[in-house]
Known about the structure:
9 strands, alpha+beta, about 375 residues, about 15% strand, 9-stranded mixed β-sheet
Amino acid sequence: SSKLRGAEFIKTMIIPAKGLSTDSLQGLCERIREFNHEANLSAQALCERINHSSSKSLMRGVFEELLREQHLRQIHRCRRLASTLQGFKRVLLGDSTVVKLNEKLQDIFPGTNRGGTGAKSQRKIDLIHDITSGSMIDATLHNGNDPDQGLANQIVRHIREGDLVIRDLGYFVLESLRKIADAGAYFLSRFQPNVKIYLKKDDVEAVDLGNYVERNYSGVATIDLEHVFLGDEKVPARIILYHQPREIVEKRRREANQRARETGRKMSKGKRLCLQFAVYVTNAPKELLTAEVVGTVYRLRWEIELIFKRWKSQLQIDYLKGINKNRIECLIWSRLCTIIMIEMVSGFIARIADATFKQEISLDKVVSYILRKDKFAEAIVNDR
């Protein structure tokens, strides 16, 4: 009787700023009437639709269609990365962010206190992002207390030969690194100190990295161990070490000593020596990634933190009302749909700026412009 069509519901859900992040249900009903004057829903009727499991499934389906559409388009290749990383097909960043929920949902969506910013109820968004084109590869939802290591293999099905995958220590799983290498791709990560290192594949005894470096590379600022093998799986890799400034080393020692006191464990000489270095691991040959640029390239990982910040500050993905589990997931998928659409628009603008002026533009400023004075919302309302 309401004559509400699926397209009108989708438009209402994906419009930023005036969507469920700030509007009341009554306000959303008014928005629906902008699309269809005959769709006269009450706030309660709309609430029932949003809380229904079909709405969650619908918005997830829209997200997957938008993701496919984005992949079919040439978005933009970042000029800044073209020279340094020209040997790689794509540069993929993997990381996650959490959305805090009402604590009444903790039995359904449990959270965690890991990292000191936890909550009783959380939903985790695991993101795979192609930094070379500025496009989302995939996003999946998980409970807030699911460790990142358990999600390390999510990226494998998206890997193409020649890709470079950059992730932090939370995703350091040797099985995942091996699968990336088996796919003909490359990984770059900080090194997990407790992982065994073998100098030869048939070695039985692991080497103590700190002691080995002290004996063979004393006084060398940048150390490149080109052919080593990691863990019992004997995953082939390179280990790159950078000497750290004295103040950083001293801070690390204080923190390590504090942890040792708290756990009652004694730190070995080798591990103490490793505190002097920033240690990275990759399987990319030096022809593609020299030791001198590894640290700089790894810092590209922080781009994904800027993406999460933009999601929360500009697109309000972490502002979710309600305690119905279907409603929460409907809202998250809706926000992710908004994000993909804005990425497609901003990618087009970036490509024009690159082709016309040979310059990169600030994505934060582009998104702010798109959202300013409801430009994006009006474009959706008017089907432009």
